[in-house]
Specification:
Blueprint lengths: L2 H7 L3 H33 L15 H10 L11 H18 L6 E6 L2 E5 L7 H22 L3 H32 L4 H6 L6 H4 L1 H14 L11 H4 L9 H26 L20 H23 L5 H31 L4 H21 L12 E3 L2 E3 L29
Antiparallel strand pairs: 1-2, 3-4
Length: about 425
């Protein structure tokens, strides 16, 4: 049992209930704020004001939209599987709230005279709980597409399943590097292991891979293939309306907040103050660390908005190629290199020699990649490839079909017909 778990085990039931309600309320409020924040930031990027009418600075626009969804007519397709159609949005939304329970928001504080941690629960396998919750959430998307009884939602659901499988492997391998450095799967121990140096510095490639994977995991632009409105109308939630659609919207933003908070815990020191404030004891005590945690989390959330307002949606084959041919191999190489470096360092190899050795390995890998021959294209067959898909000729000159021989015709004088 970890030290954090020992402290949390002494919490009375009323304190656990208060923590659960506060986390649930916090996620709802952050969702409303993030919807407003995203619309405002993207509006500024596109030289328009964004929501600015309802409430001060338009802050109540998200609440007004949520109330509007409640009173919308709830329509269910005739071919839909009733109970699965109803349960799918709930299944998609709950895992995000569950995963947030193991994320430490701050150090030990006093709440109504009870000394406790700003964390609902600490488990020896807290990291696996977050990964498992992220995996379960995709079931809601898959079931919504299957139960709608329509082809477009089904295609979006299949895309989402393939997307989560692909990018969760890369995300898991990026997390493995953090687990190797901290020596624990407990989120509280991971934060404690970054007292001197954040893991964003010691395992920077892992941070980059995780950030790319978390965008793909949450189906956000430019990886929003399951709900690509340009070709799938609305993807997996095409046939949903009213609050069922609102639950999918809520699930998307709650998952964004959860994976951003998880990234803060893994790579940015969690609730610990940034340097040089971390040198002062007052910066890491009391309720102030909660402010540091929220600021770091909003950095990742701003990255979500920035990507949506900047990058176009990827083609599906480009998206899958990025996951399987780049992120997963690079993650594997980084984990092996990191563990090899730790072993060599423990054997007495100094840091400079270790860097030279890792550089030689990377150079060798690049040299091998350049020696791999590219796929040849049969020019005679006039087939051109864009990735793995055939496209029209690049010079836009379609080869003409050979001329067919003219049929032999004989002209006869109609007056000569029948001997006339």
């Amino acid at each position: 049992m970890t030290l954090a778990a020992a402290v949390l085990d002494d919490d009375p039931i009323w304190l656990v209930a208060i923590k659960a309600v506060v986390i649930f309320t916090l996620l709802l409020l952050l969702t409303l704020f993030m919807i407003w924040f995203e619309r405002r930031v993207v509006g500024r990027m596109q030289h328009r004001p964004g929501p600015n009418r309802v409430g001060p600075f338009g802050l109540l626009q998200s609440l007004a939209d949520g109330l509007k969804l409640i009173f919308k007519e709830d329509i269910r397709p005739v071919l839909a599987d009733k109970w699965i159609y109803i349960l799918a949005p709930v299944i998609a939304g709950i895992p995000g709230f569950v995963a947030f329970a193991v994320i430490p928001l701050g150090p030990e504080v006093s709440i109504f005279g009870e000394h406790t941690l700003l964390q609902l629960a600490d488990l020896p396998i807290g990291v696996l709980v977050v990964l498992a919750a992220a995996s379960v959430g995709v079931y809601g998307i898959v079931l919504s597409g299957w139960s709608s009884g329509s082809p477009y939602p089904l295609l979006g659901a299949l895309r989402s399943a393939a997307q989560v499988i692909s990018y969760e492997i890369a995300m898991g391998l990026a997390i493995v590097s953090v687990v190797l450095l901290s020596g624990s799967l407990s989120t509280a121990d991971i934060v404690a292991g970054q007292e001197r140096l954040w893991f964003a510095v010691s395992t920077a490639p892992g941070l980059v891979i995780y950030v790319i994977a978390m965008v793909g995991e949450t189906n956000r632009a430019p990886f929003d293939l399951p709900e690509a409105e340009s070709e799938l109308v609305g993807g997996f939630h095409t046939e949903y309306s009213s609050m069922k659609f609102g639950l999918f919207y809520l699930a998307e933003y709650v998952n964004m907040i959860t994976v951003s908070a998880f990234a803060t815990t893994l790579f940015l020191g969690g609730w610990r103050a940034p340097w040089p404030l971390s040198e002062f004891s007052w910066a890491n005590t009391g309720w102030l660390p909660l402010v540091w945690f929220l600021i770091k989390t909003f950095l990742f959330l701003f990255l979500y908005v920035w990507l949506r307002g900047t990058l176009p949606r990827l083609r599906y084959d480009q998206f899958m190629r990025l996951g399987w041919k780049f992120l997963v191999p690079i993650s594997l190489v980084w984990v092996v290199a990191l563990q090899s470096g730790r072993v060599l360092t423990s054997e007495g190899l100094n840091a400079s020699r270790l860097l030279v050795l890792l550089g030689a390995v990377v150079a060798l890998a690049l040299a091998i990649s350049f020696l791999i021959p590219e796929r040849r294209v049969d020019q005679g067959a006039r087939v051109y490839l864009a990735g793995d898909f055939p496209v029209p000729p690049l010079d836009l000159k379609v080869p003409k079909a050979p001329k067919q021989p003219a049929l032999a015709t004989t002209s006869r004088n109609p007056e000569e017909h029948d001997g006339v």
